[in-house]
Structure formats: structure tokens, C-alpha cells
Protein 1
Amino acid sequence: MYKISYTGDGQTTQYIFAFPFFQDADVRVAINESVLDSANYAVVANDDFDGGTVSFLTPPADGAKIDIFRQISLSRVIDYQPTAKIDPENLNSDFNFLVAAFRDLREIDIDLTEWKNTHDNVMSFLEYNLDVIQDK
């Protein structure tokens, strides 16, 4: 996952990040582990979307932990029509988008305790359903 962290000083409103993204909505911000609504900050991209600046309306508090990270939303950007010619640039862009999104999903930090609890609950549920089915 692409992520950069800062500590707020109560005065600075602009923070630089240097990671690639596809659209402004891919850049997310959290303060003290709480993800902000995009109305609380603006993203100004570099010319080739390989980084940029996050500008806050009000400066984060002194000592606040600021995380700027990429979170790509898996959604269709291009709608290919069955009878239309496929543009290679669009196709390559789509594949790059999917690879980046899957890379972000793969690199998410996982809370192993939470994962184990979820896994155990799902396994118990499946085993219960299997017993019910076998009894019928």
C-alpha cells in the first residue's frame, strides 16, 4: 500500500506525497486513524499523477498523526462496446488500474486477531450449515 505519514504541528495545511494514483478520489487521508471525508481536504496532483499535495481547510492539530494513502476503488472506468474498436491505450490503462487495485488489496495491513475471529466465526457457521444439510 502506498502511504506516507506526518505529524501535525497545528499550522501546516499542505503535505506532499509521492506515489502514483489514477484520480483524486484514490488519495485518502486519515488523522489519528480516522479516515476523513474528502470535503475536509483537497488533492492537487502533479502533471503525471505520480504524487502531489494534500491541502487541508484547517491545519491538523499539533501532534496529530496524518496518514496519506492510496485506496483505489474497484469500478469500471471504460465501457467497451461489442461492435466498437478497442483502443490499446484504454485497454492498457484498464489493466494498469486493475493491477494497482489488486496490489493495494494485497498489501493491506491485516489485524491477525480480527482475521482469526472472523475466520473462526465463518468456519463455525459453515460447519453448522453442513450439519443441518446432512441431517436432512
Note: The first strand starts at residue 3 and ends at 7.
Protein 2
Amino acid sequence: MDSWLTTILIFLPVAGALLVWLAPLPRYWAGSLAALVSLVEIGFWISALQQFDFGDPALQFDQQATWFPDLGVSYHVGMYAFSVWLVGLTVVVQAACIVYAWWVGRARPRAYFGLQLFLTGAIVGVFTSQDLLLFYAFFEAMLIPLYVLIGVWGGAGRMLATIKFVVYTVVGSLLMLASIVVYGLQAGTFDL
């Protein structure tokens, strides 16, 4: 199970998001399910924290599967010491956001809680990916719920903020994709 911890931390909230989106749950139960998934996610992170060997600087809890061997593209995730803390910060803060939103009663709860859970999985993927194209995919996946969360549940001036967010991230994402492709083709692999 140790090698699966990183993958579980990525895809558990994504599976929870799909369940929240697809199950016709009332407001209270959608929030309850999202809060439960968030707390289980914290439990898996605590398990990873307890098993992590901070004396070993190597990548731990890694999992790798080659997708396109000719291009050097793979599903490669794992955690270094700093990654464990970034993942922990993500899952704890996201769980706090979900529990608070459940407590105050957010409008459109299934959409909100699903987006928050999907965002959690994408951020954990960003912090644990060891392949540049996989990192890029998780980074772009992270932006999608942020666009919607800002545009729908943001405060005053949320539409202007969403437009600026889209413009800045599209320009930055295209530059990042171009540099990743050039680096990967020169190095012969996208794996870090």
C-alpha cells in the first residue's frame, strides 16, 4: 500500500467529487459526503506522514507507469520531504474550507463541494507529479475549478477577476507548455 499512497491522495478526492456531482443528494448530505472524503484524505496524509522517512532524501511513495515510451511520457508520482508538507497543507486547508462551507450552507452545494474536492486532487497532483507533462496536466486541471469557484462564488467584482485570471493563466500556461515540450524533447524524457 505504501507505493499507492500518493495515487490515493490524488484520486480519492477526485472520486469523491464525481460521487458528489452524480449522486442526487440534498444540500446537507452533499456537504456531509464532501466533509467525510476530506477527513479520510487527511487520514491518508497522516498515514503517509507517519511512514515517511525524513532521513532519506530520495523520492518516496513513488509509482510509475509508462504511457508513451517513445516520447518518454509516464505517470510518475511520489513525494519528497517538502512535498509531504505541501500535500498536508493542501488537504488540511481544503478540508477546513469544505467543512466551513458545509456549516454555513453554500448555495449550489453539489457543484461547490464537487469543485472543491476536484481542486484538492489536482493540487495534490501538482505537488507530487514527477513527470513534466503530468505536472502540466494537473496544473491545468487545477485551474478549471478555480475559474468556476471565482466566477460563481467570488465576491464583488468576481467577473472582472475571472477574466483577468483566465487571461493571465492562458498566457502563462502556453509559455509553460512550450518550455516543457522543448525541454522534454531535448532531454529525451519528460520525467524529472
Note: Helices lie at 5-22, 27-51, 81-104, 109-128, 132-153, 158-187.
Protein 3
Amino acid sequence: DYLTCTYRGHGQSLAKGLSPRAAMAELLGRTTGCCKGRGGSMHLTDVSRGHLGENAIVGAGLATAAGAAFAAKRLGTGRVALTYFGEGATNQGVVHETLNLAAAWTLPVVFFCENNIYAEMTPIAQEVRVPNMSARAAGNGIPAVEVDGNDVLAVLETVRAAAGRARSGGGPTFIEAHTYRTCGHMVGDPETYRPKDEVAHWRARDPIARFRNVLLERHGFSAADIAAVEKEAAAAIDDAESFAKASPWPEA
């Protein structure tokens, strides 16, 4: 959501999200931020780019996405809503209410569940009796797809297919991306609840490192090409930081 992403080598921009400047300024509470410095890190919003806003209520994004999808269907805009949430959020009542409604009304929405095994510090296996969250979508009559959440291109193609299905009138899709949180839930998290060998296993499957290798081995990128992209990204962040620090604070 934070960066403008271009899949180099294919000549097409895949996503134009919230600008780094607008995001960084919001994080630092400045008037040039996407919410004029009053939203903060948990409420980044930019309606002009189709980003209808984060919120701190677990699972609430599904209802917002369904509302946007309902509007798109009624107005015939051809737009598709996409919302992200964790596996722990699937225990929220609003999630099941929204899945049911989206199925009943054949809404153009993609539900993207990032299953990273832990809801804060609690393993999902201790919370539910279904091994996969996709089963909860099936119970509402929504097609579900499971994907390796650490495979960049697999995720891209899965979302692209789901969006195409929604746009053509096929209704919602539930994507369960199997992934892992490689650091603690919060700053200072002692992580005593996670086995060290489990963490090491998943860190070895880091999606950024894997994608770098895919670009090198299968798509004709050189190490210099990747270094150039990394340099450009770092420059964008440095620029965003300088811009935000130079921006004014909001009025009282």
C-alpha cells in the first residue's frame, strides 16, 4: 500500500498506491500526510487512489470492502474491492456476516486472508477446529483458493484471477495466503511463544529473498538491475523522510 510498485521487465505498472511522502508525513503527524497528520499509522487513507482506509478494529475492513463492492456493482463501475486480514480475524462476527452477504449479493470483492499462524501470541490451532481458514469461506458458498503467501508471483496471479472473476460478475473469492511473521508482534516482543527452529524455517523462505532469486534465475534480471531497484526504493524512502520532517505540524 505504501509504495508505487512497478514489475520491471514487463513494462506495466501493477499498483499505484499511497505515495511514500504522504505515508511518511502521516506517520510523523504532519499536515502533508494523507490524513493531514491526524490519522496516524493505523488509519492511512487516500480515497483518490481507491484506498478507503485502515482502522484498528479487527476484521472491520471486510465490511468496508463489501460496502465498496456493493456500490461498484450498483453503479456499474467495474471496480473490485480488495481487503486484507489475518487468520485470527476470522473469529470476528462481522467477518462471517460479511462473507454471507457478499455471497448472497454476488459482490465483486476479494477477501485476502494472511494466515501467519499466530494471532498476536496465540497459535490459530488453539483457537479454531478447522485446519484452514478457507473452510470458513466454503461454508458461506464462496470459492476459496490457497496460495504460498511467500511466493510473490503466485500471489500476484491468484489475486489477478480473483479480481477478474469478480469483475466479470462471478462474485467474491476468498484467498488464504500461507505466510509467517518473521519478527515479533510488537517492539520488545520476547517471542517466547514461538519455537526458534520454526522461526528459522520460515525466515529461510523470506519472500523478498525468494523473489530476488526468481528474477535472477528466470526473468533475465542481473544483480545490477536489482541493485538499481533497491537504490531507487531507498532513495524514495529518504526523500519521503526529508519531506515529512520539513512539513508543518497541524494546528491545535
Note: The longest strand covers residues 109-115.
Protein 4
Amino acid sequence: LKHALMYRQKGWGVIPLKPKSKLPIIDWKKYQTELASEEQINEWWTKWPEANIGIVTGRISGIVVIDIDVKDDKKGDESLMELETKFEKLTTTIEAITPTGGKHIYFKYPENATIGCKTDIRSGIDIRGDGGYVVAPPSVL
């Protein structure tokens, strides 16, 4: 609950996910365009204290997340290094290490653009924008 409220205080959309899962407990469609209140978040985590935390990405939260996957045959870390050698790093940002050894890199949602979700833009690299969410720390998978 403490972490879910912390994310909400940043202005990010928060949804409860099933314990040890990436799947939402609730129908979260309305939370793609509406932020859950602190009261709603309190109610969810009172009902499901072991719920994982989902952060809704896109314009509603003002963030886009690059999801780097390295499990199985995914080579997200190699694809990221390839991209970093081609493009100058623009800014420092928040990064979260995922349980599978990948990472989520958070960026500010651009004002004059629309960014949705796209998988495998390069091997092991996905984008989470409008219509998406990520599993946030300290969630357990």
C-alpha cells in the first residue's frame, strides 16, 4: 500500500495486480484515462494486501516505459547497447531491474506526440505507453 500510494503521489496511475502475477485483479480500462484516487487505492490494498502494483503508462501518468527483456531467447540488453551506441543518451531517468534480469526505463511522456504500446521494436525491447502498464517495485513475480 505504501508504495502504491507513493506512485500515486507522483501523479502516476496505479492498479492492483494479482499476487505474484502481471495480471490485473480489476477491470482496469477506465484507469487508462482516469487516475484512481488515494481512497480507491487504500480500498484495493485493504481488500488485496498481497497485490502487486501496476503502473499505468501513457499520457494519464505522463510516462513511457521502455521494457528490456533478457529471458529465454530475448536479447534486450544487446539491442539496448546497440541503440545506445547509435544515439547519444539524452537524459538520466528512473530504471527498475525486473525479476527476470531485464529492466524498465522510465521517460516523460512527450507533450506533442501519441505513444502507444509496441512489442519487439528490437529483440527484447517493448514500449509501454497509452493502453499499457508495467509491474512496479516492490512487486513479486
Note: Strands lie at 13-17, 52-56, 63-68, 95-97, 103-108, 118-122, 125-128, 133-136.
